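Re-run requested by the PI after the first attempt was lost when the workstation crashed. Everything re-entered from the original request form. Ligand of interest: adenosine-5'-diphosphate.
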Amino acid sequence: MSGAAAENRGLGWRAVQVVTVLVYIFMFAPIMVVVVLSFNDSQFGGFPMTGFSFRWYYKLLENESVLRAFQTSIWVAIVTSVICSVLGVLGALALVRYEFPGKEWVNTILIAPALVPETVLGVGLLLLMRWAHQPRTLWVLVLGHIMLALPYVVLVVQARLIGIKRVYEEAAMSLGANRFHTFREITLPLLMPAIVASLLLVFTISFDNITASMFWRPSGVETMPTQILSMLKVSISPEINALGTLMIIVTVGLPLIGGGLARYLARSVR
Amino acid sequence: MTAAAAVELHDVTLAYGSFVAVKNVALSIAKGEFVTLLGPSGCGKTTILRSIAGLVQPTGGEIVVAGRRIDNVPIHKRNIGLVFQNYALFPHKSVFDNIAFGLKYRSVEKSMIAKKVTRALEMVRLPGVEKKLPSEMSGGQQQRIALARAIVIEPDVLLLDEPLSALDANLREEMRTELKIIQREVGITTIFVTHDQEEALAMSDRIVVMNKGEIEQSGTPEDVYRRPESRFVASFLGQSNLLPGRIASVQGGKAAIRIDNGPELLALAPAAAREGARVTAVVRAQKVAVGSTGGSAGTMTGKIVSASYLGGTAAYFIDAGGVRLQAIATIEDRVWREGETVDIAINPTDCLLLDEGGKRMR
Ligand SMILES: Nc1ncnc2c1ncn2[C@@H]1O[C@H](COP(=O)(O)OP(=O)(O)O)[C@@H](O)[C@H]1O
Ligand SMILES: [Mg+2]
């Protein structure tokens, strides 16, 4: 290769690097700004920095409505992820391990909510509840979140289940284990990585859902995202930055921990 | 059928939808016998094993194991040892837990379980690996663990589905011998499935040759190899020349066969041999003698079309008066070369006759 061409290539490479860095800045700057400003001592939720302080975090801890919203979100997310994982595992088992009429349809219907716009789902579930004369309790919100997250659980568990060879189950049964024992001793442990992954995935989906939650939450009840939204309507308080930082920690940290845990489980399982 | 039979299949039929994978298979296996199901891929061997194990349900017939009809018994209540082609060791369980798995469901005491696992590992000559995970072991070792797991429960019958096919060639031969020795020691009734005839001939007390879901022939390795009952068995086992022709004459216990567009061959005449009948003469490639025999009776000449040197033997294709013969001959002094003319001799006792239906003439 001639010197000029090498230089050209060097230039092109430089350009790619610059663009990459710019894209990363574009993606992560807002997040960084929120995190940095959450430690700003200033009364206003913007630059310039006037000093380092945890005061907005302390203030959050004293904010009753924020704490209540946080509790609500955590509760909804936990209940949703547990129910979703149980249903998702059962559904995936049925879809992968058993033959029954209308299997294709059931599969499509289980996955469909992931494809329908959330606004439509939001309105739809509300109309259904009105038609059934059901009050708008927190359980409607949970039900809605289950509907939103279930497709992902089914997909994740299904993928793993296809990878678990049926001969393991057949071997267990030939050795004297009935269906239940086989599930408990063989299928479930081998599915664990997928179950951990889906618990966390559902938790995250539920924890930061806002669009559908706006439709489904009972009046007077706020989830974390709707709480932030309503706080923003009043002013950009520095508290919101602290809250945002906490949200980032929960929604990024959990999947990371979960991913690591799943990989660890998968290794011991292989 | 005798009362001593360990496994009996009475006209077992199994269809997947409209496709009949196993047709009216009847089989009786004595206690301690090593029986091999041999046949090409897709002939229904696995399906038969799976129906004995209870992994598929036959659409017709009865299966009796240890005197008990089991085809309606759920799989976990049959007492059957199963070894899969890829071992199917539980990847998340240690070797100990793998082998102990079946014992847990047989209300065996804890201390007894440990003892039995140790003994099983000794039996497969892998003592002391209890704590390892299957992934930490080689293919051959996993194979032994799978065998230990299956025999530790003292099953009524051991079912092995191509257990050696995932091993490399050297190990396969070693495990072949090993497996046979272990089977003898334990004295366990065994059904072995393979498509490898060498394996079948080397290991079995009895070989059941299958084709398209049906049993073609059942007999000792020598029986099926030397006295094939049908065209399929003759062509599946070993290398044989199948030569269509017509019986020219029957005289003095010998039949002269006029091979279509070819020479005349002498065969021992079966009782059913009639002049003019269409037959197929079957001659093993190893039984075609090649050399300069000097024009004795039953001798013809041919021209070497191709020759391959195999070490102790050589394989030839020979054009003998219009028909193509395959011969595998020990090398006496030299390997014949392409284009050379040789004498060919076939002993009448080595020439079997099949009738028009492809069955052996008797
Ligand atoms: N679950 C199944 N559904 C439909 N056909 C099957 C199934 N299992 C096996 N078959 C068919 O049945 C035939 C026999 O299969 P198998 O018993 O596995 O043969 P082998 O073990 O002798 O190779 C094959 O043609 C195979 O395609
Ligand atoms: Mg098979």
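Saved to the shared folder this time. Residues B 16, 19, 21, 39, 41-47 surround adenosine-5'-diphosphate (ligand 1) (CB under 6 Å).
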